[in-house]
Amino acid sequence: GYIADIGEKYSLETITDFHTVEEANLAAKYVDCLQVPAFLARQTELLVAAGETGKTINIKKGQFMSPVDMGKAAEKVASTSNDKIWLTERGTFFGYNDLVVAW
């Protein structure tokens, strides 16, 4: 069955990842919350598309992202007048933003 059917059957709210603008619009028809995958959490087009659905948006923090970066991601969703924003902390490693350093 569809995720919407499961949510309805068990009286649960549902969430799913999406990876494209088109998937955001499609998934919004079936779930209560859209989740932005960590690796895509800085993609303006995806964040805005998610916000425009009016659904709750969960942004997973990439381990390469600083807290400031997460604020910027949330602002992109909020720019759509959607204030239903969750942020998921996933830990970090030493340093931010420079995953590869070339000499």
Overview of the structural elements:
The protein is of the alpha/beta class and 103 residues long. It is built from 4 helices and 4 strands. It has helices at residues 3-10, 21-27, 44-52, 67-78, and strands at residues 15-17, 33-36, 56-60, 85-88. The protein has a 4-stranded parallel beta sheet with strand order 1-2-3-4, covered by helices on one side. Helix 3 packs across helix 4. The protein is globular.
Topology:
Elements: H1 3-10, E1 15-17, H2 21-27, E2 33-36, H3 44-52, E3 56-60, H4 67-78, E4 85-88
Parallel strand pairs: 1-2, 2-3, 3-4
What are the defining features of this structure?
single chain; four-stranded parallel beta sheet; 4 helices; alpha/beta; 103 residues
Distance between the termini: 52 Å
The strand order across the widest sheet is 1-2-3-4
- Average residue pLDDT: 90
Please state the CA-atom Rg, rounded to the nearest Å.
Answer: 15 Å
Structural class: alpha/beta
Instruction: Work out the number of β strands.
Output: 4
Helix share, percent: 25-40%
Uncertain stretches of 5 or more adjacent residues: none
Q: Strand-and-helix sequence, N→C?
A: HEHEHEHE
Q: Largest sheet, if any?
A: 4 strands, parallel
Tell me what portion of residues adopts beta-strand conformation.
15-25%
Number of helices: 4
Shape: globular
Oligomer: single chain
Summary?
With about 100 residues, this protein is an alpha/beta fold. It has helices spanning about 5-10, 20-25, 45-50, 65-80, and strands at about 15, 35, 55-60, 85-90.
